[in-house]
Amino acid sequence: MFSSGATSFGGTSTGFSGFSSVNSTNNLGLGNTDNPMKDIEVQSPPEDTVSAVRFSPKADFLIASSWANDVRCWEVQENGQTIPKAQKTHAGPILDCAWHDDGSKVFTASVDKQCKVWDLNANQDMQVAQHDGPVKTCHWVQAPNYSCLMTGSWDKTLKFWDLRQSNPILTLQLPERCYCADVVYPMAIVGTAQRGIICYQLENQPSEYKRIESPLKYQNRCVSIFKDSKKNGQPVGFALGSVEGRVAIHFIQPQNPKDNFTFKCHRSNGTTANIQDIYAVNNIAFHPVHFCLLSTVGSDGKFSFWDKDARTKLKTSEQLNLPITSCCFNSKGNIFAYASGYDWSKGHEYYNPQVKPKILLRSCADELKPRKGK
C-alpha cells in the first residue's frame, strides 16, 4: 500500500530484467483481456482512468495522475516489480503531471483550476499556480538563465510561474482552450481547440514563435516534440495526434517539404466492407535515446512502435479490453509504461465499473531499434 513516509528520489536509472507476468481474461470492451501482452502490472493503480504516466528523468520512479483526483508514485525495481511509495490529491480530477528536472518534485494540473508541486522527499505539496478554468497541462522549463512552471488551461491562457511567487511571471493569451502541450527546451508546442497549433521559443523569455496550420483535419488530441536524430539532438519538430486515428510528423523548419507527412494508426477494419473503425490517438511518446523512434497509444486498446525516419511501423500490440490513455519511456528507454482505462469515447453505455484501470510495464529494448540502412 501507499505510505506517507519520506523517500530519497535521487540516484540513477536501474536495469530491467527478471520479468514475471500477470494475465487475466475479461470478455468486456475492446479485446478479451486486460493484459494480452503479459506485461508487468503496477501495484495499487488509481481507482479511475489515468490521465498521464511519467517516468522520472533521474531514476526509475513512475508517477501517474488520474480522474480519481490523485497522483501516485512508485519505485520500479530491477526485476520490474513496483513498490507504491506515496500519493497526493486535488479537489478534482488531475489532467496532467510532470517532473522537475532534478527528479525531486512533481507538478500536477487539475480540473480544480490549480497546479500543485509535490516535494517527494518531504512528502509535502502546495499550490503553485491558479487559472480561471481547469488546468489541462503542466511542464517544467529549465533554461540556462531561469526556471519556471508552464501551465496551459481551458481559460485560453498559457502561464509561466516562478515557484517563489504567487502571481505568474508571464501570461500569454491562446486563441482557444489548451488541449495539449509539450516542452523540450528551447521549444514549446501548444495545441488548442479548433485545431490551433502554436510554437513558442523559450530562450531568455518565452514568446510566440509561429502559428502553424494543422496538418490534420480533426481535433488535436496529443502532441510530442522530437529532437534531431542525425545531428545535435536539438528539438526540431513535433508529432501531433488527433481524434481521427492519424498522426502528423511536422518539422518547424523542414529542409524539404516532403519531410512533413501524416500516417494512419489506431484504425481497424469494420464489419462492413471498405469501412474502418477509427479511434483517437491518446498519447505519443518519443524514445529518449533513439530520437527517430516513437510510440502511439489509442482508444482501440493498442500501442504501436514506429520509426519515423524509416516511416515504418515496428510493432503493434494485441488489443486490450480498455482504451490506452497514456504512455511513456524511462530515461534509458528500456521500459515502456502504458495505462489502460475507459476514456468515454463510446459513451456511458460502454462504461463497466467492474473493469478497473491498469498501468503496465514492458521491457522494450529488443523491440525498439532504429531500422538499418535509412
From TrEMBL:
It comes from the Eukaryota. Signal peptide: none annotated. Its main location: cytoplasm. One of its GO terms (biological process) is cell division. Gene3D superfamilies: YVTN repeat-like/Quinoprotein amine dehydrogenase (2.130.10.10). Keywords: Cell cycle, Cell division, Cytoplasm, Mitosis, Nucleus, Repeat, Transport, WD repeat. It holds the Pfam family WD40. One of its GO terms (cellular component) is cytoplasm. WD repeats lie at residues 87-128, 128-171. InterPro entries: WD40/YVTN_repeat-like_dom_sf (IPR015943), WD40_PAC1 (IPR020472), WD40_repeat_CS (IPR019775), WD40_repeat_dom_sf (IPR036322), WD40_rpt (IPR001680). PROSITE patterns: WD_REPEATS_1, WD_REPEATS_2, WD_REPEATS_REGION. It is found in: Cytoplasm; Nucleus. Belongs to the WD repeat rae1 family. This is mRNA export factor. It comes from Exaiptasia diaphana (Tropical sea anemone).
